[in-house]
Amino acid sequence: MLLAAAAGIAAGSAAATPLRLPIAISDVGTQRFPRRVLALVAEGEGIEWDILPVPWPRMVAMAQRGEALAFGLSPTPRRQPLFAFSDALYDSRVWALSHRQQPPLLDHPDHLRGLAVCAGRGVSYGESIDTLLAESTQTSLVLGDVALRARLVMAQRCDVALFSSYVASSEALERKLRQRLPSAGGVVVHRQPLATWSTHIAVRRGHPLAQGLDRINRAIRRQHRAIQALVDAGR
């Protein structure tokens, strides 16, 4: 697969020449949103995806080894020397979830200090939050979607659970959570996100697959309005 992708890149970048690329996405949830974004990118520049749903840590590792592109990475200081990134697809936000009866003050990342925090394994929430989580002895790294983290909060396994989402409204996130987990009435999504970052497609810097980013970027620019409309529909 990788040899075929590299050969396709080397053969030319004209939109008339189909380009088939392997891309890993997180296997959490239905995967409907990333698949729809990738479909729009594919339409923009004649790209064909081999989509590989895998756990988030494996997705990052695959991209770092050059086994596939990765969907959904942000260019943090630790990642930038390792990965080549596409243009931004859309913005993601870091949201905090806590018990409704005793919600802690969470207007700033520093407010996470002293709290038991459940966070995604292998996920970056931005340099300041990542540093706080790494320094804390009360950080639990978990796999699974926001519904699982809501259960952990309700079971008092953690004071706060962090998750990232393209959805820009805490009210919309609470509605989506309750559709997925009707028993989640005891938790609240805090009104302001703790951080916002851009979301990209990435792969190991210098790998032949990185040559496909030029074509991906053209597609992103061509489909920018359609991708943003998809993001806005999730609010």
Q: Give the amount of beta strand, in percent.
A: 25-35%
Question: What is the ordering of alpha helices and beta strands?
Answer: HEHEHEEEEHEHEHEEHH
Please bin the fraction of helical residues.
25-40%
User: What ranges have pLDDT less than 50 throughout 5 or more consecutive residues?
Assistant: none
Task: Provide a compact summary of the structure.
By secondary structure, this protein is α/β, with parallel strands linked by helices. The chain has eight helices and ten strands.
Task: Give a topology summary.
Layout: H1 2-11, E1 19-26, H2 32-45, E2 47-54, H3 56-65, E3 69-73, E4 83-85, E5 90-99, E6 117-120, H4 127-135, E7 139-142, H5 146-154, E8 160-165, H6 170-180, E9 187-189, E10 195-204, H7 213-222, H8 224-233
Parallel strand pairs: 1-2, 1-3, 6-7, 6-8
Antiparallel strand pairs: 3-10, 4-10, 5-8, 5-9, 5-10
Helix pairs in contact: 2-7
